[in-house]
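Subject: Re: docking follow-up (pyridoxal-5'-phosphate)

Dear J.,

Thanks for your patience while I sorted out the input files. As discussed at Tuesday's group meeting, I've set up the holo structure prediction with pyridoxal-5'-phosphate included as the bound ligand rather than trying to dock it afterwards. The sequence and the ligand SMILES I used are pasted below, so you can double-check that they match what you have on your end before we go further.
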Amino acid sequence: MKKQGIDVIGFGAGEPDFDTPSNIKESGIRAMEKGYTKYTAAAGMPELRSAIVEKLSRENGLSYSPSQVVVCCGAKHALFNIFQAICDEGDEVIILSPYWVSYSEAVKLSGGVPVIVSAGMDSGFKVTPEQIIQAVTDRTKALVINSPCNPTGAVYTPAEIEAIGRALLDTDLYIVSDEIYERLVYDGTAPLSIAAAVPGLKDRTFIVNGVSKTYAMTGWRIGYAAGPEEEIKAAISIQSHSASAPAHFAQVAAIEAISGDQSSVGPMVQEFRRRRDYMVSRLSSMEGVQCPTPAGAFYVFPRVSDLYGRTLGGVVIENSADFCAQMLEVARIALVPGSGFGADEYVRLSYAMSMDSIERGLDRMAEAVAQMR
Ligand SMILES: Cc1ncc(COP(=O)(O)O)c(C=O)c1O
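The structure tokens for the complex came back this morning:
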């Protein structure tokens, strides 16, 4: 529609609208000029692996050796490599819903079977330890936990993460902790890594993270995993026969991102908080829309199912896909249906876009919602 010249406001973005900070870009440019344009070790540059080890110690209180770290082409690729390394055909992996769409697909690509454990808005989109334990069978290989969460923005408190961790001590599951949004939190609760909350789990936990979100570096494709040495070695071996390694100069820039000047992060977080607050207050004032306040990431995940059964633009809205299709058709705004995240009562809106677009987009949505009969 945009290509046809139609003015569509997109709330679908999964990446910061900010530019990569200049110190990081300059470091990448310098790296290219100096000839950092070759293959690196499959596991990543030793300097970058060391910088990641230092970051995990400094910011997360976790101690690793560089041999326990693999640098991949984004956190998504790190997750893919981990599931390839640990899953045998038919192994079950517990995924907490609403979930980021790629977990279930990466598990399936490894021969594994996603097992979904759900939490709704009323529990703050957070599952209990009991729910997780009930889903464990003798085929369960791993649990994926993502806090702050895409799509809900939910952040487990330290007490909640510790309770889940303690319950897992009685199992032999791997834990895959996706911490990609850890710095994008808005209510003063710094997320605690499950491996730090319950040290007894560290030997079977993979910490997954990357530079995409914190440093607005989605296109540089640098993510990483830290975890048990043998399994990381298997992930490196898989990577060496597939991607080889991420781009050399992008790895150099990632060292600057992780170890260099951090002053770009604070203002970006502040701006996201301002937009979050505006989004929540506008959406909450629309009749039939309930929008909890997310504590992290850059998405809101309102429940719109009270509007199902009503008509918009001559079409009866039955589910989140219908809702989004008609919002595009009638209001010219693009939202993401909750069904893709395992939660059909909801839709996802990103606020990684300018305040002006947010205001105009929500004006259009409010008008369309008011028309629904
Ligand atoms: C929860 C979550 N994990 C991982 C990723 C992947 O990030 P990367 O760009 O590092 O592959 C994303 C990106 O949208 C995400 O939302």
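A couple of observations from a first look. The pocket of pyridoxal-5'-phosphate is lined by residues 14, 74-76, 100, 146, 150, 178, 180, 210, 212, 218, 223 (CB under 6 Å). The radius of gyration is 21 Å.

Let me know if you'd like me to rerun anything.

Best regards,
T.
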